[in-house]
């Protein structure tokens, strides 16, 4: 069992990690992936979802899962993963049973938009960058 100081330290580390990556975008991409698969797997008896729609839902879910994990693990690739989430979300409307009854579509599109708009926050404890010496001002 963790003591009070260890819990605070763990919460602080989690908070720092959460702010260092597009956390909400990554979680929403994973949620969209789970929802696309759930729409195919759990709809037995309501609507029969099989054929190319089911196969595309599995493919799109895998792509969204990779995009979501990429956003959480490697924030430098946020633009690529954000575009993947947007494109897969829009394509799921047509190819994967209305994007998992529109919920997977919405989560994927919001995830892509959040990933593309996320900007890393500078750490206030780090030293400011020195100007590059590669570009020198021209004196007349």
Q: Approximately what portion of the residues adopt beta-strand conformation?
A: under 5%
- The arrangement of helices and strands along the chain is HHHHHH
The tally of domains stands at 1
Largest sheet: none
Instruction: Work out the helicity level.
Output: 55-70%
Number of helices: 6
Structural class: mainly alpha
Mean of all residue-level pLDDT scores:
84
Shape call? flat
Distance between the termini: 69 Å
Rg, Cα atoms, Å: 20 Å
Keywords: Membrane, Transmembrane, Transmembrane helix
Brief summary of the model shown:
The chain crosses the membrane at residues 21-49, 55-73, 80-96. By secondary structure, the chain is mainly alpha-helical.
Strand and helix map with partners:
Layout: H1 4-19, H2 23-41, H3 52-73, H4 78-95, H5 97-101, H6 103-117
Describe the protein in words.
Pfam families: DUF6114. InterPro entries: DUF6114 (IPR046096). The chain crosses the membrane at residues 21-49, 55-73, 80-96. Keywords: Membrane, Transmembrane, Transmembrane helix. The protein has one domain. Helix 2 runs antiparallel to helix 3 (52-73), helix 3 runs antiparallel to helix 4 (78-95) and helix 4 runs antiparallel to helix 6 (103-117). The model has no long low-confidence stretch (mean pLDDT 84). It is flat, with a radius of gyration of 20 Å. The chain contains 6 helices and no strands. The protein has 140 residues and is an all-alpha fold. The chain has helices at residues 4-19, 23-41, 52-73, 78-95, 97-101, 103-117. Helix content is 68%, strand content 0%. The longest helix has 22 residues, at 52-73. The termini are far apart.
């Amino acid at each position: 069992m963790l003591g009070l100081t260890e819990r605070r330290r763990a919460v602080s580390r989690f908070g720092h990690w959460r702010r260092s990556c597009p956390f909400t975008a990554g979680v929403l991409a994973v949620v969209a992936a789970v929802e696309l698969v759930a729409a195919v797997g759990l709809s037995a008896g309501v609507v029969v979802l099989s054929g190319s729609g089911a196969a595309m839902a599995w493919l799109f879910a895998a792509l969204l899962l990779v995009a979501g994990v990429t956003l959480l693990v490697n924030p430098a690739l946020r633009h690529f993963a954000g575009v993947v989430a947007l494109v897969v979300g829009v394509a799921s409307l047509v190819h994967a049973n209305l994007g998992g009854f529109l919920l997977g579509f919405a989560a994927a599109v919001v995830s892509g938009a959040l990933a593309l708009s996320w900007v890393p926050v500078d750490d206030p404890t780090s030293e400011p960058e020195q100007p590059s010496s590669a570009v020198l001002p021209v004196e007349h």
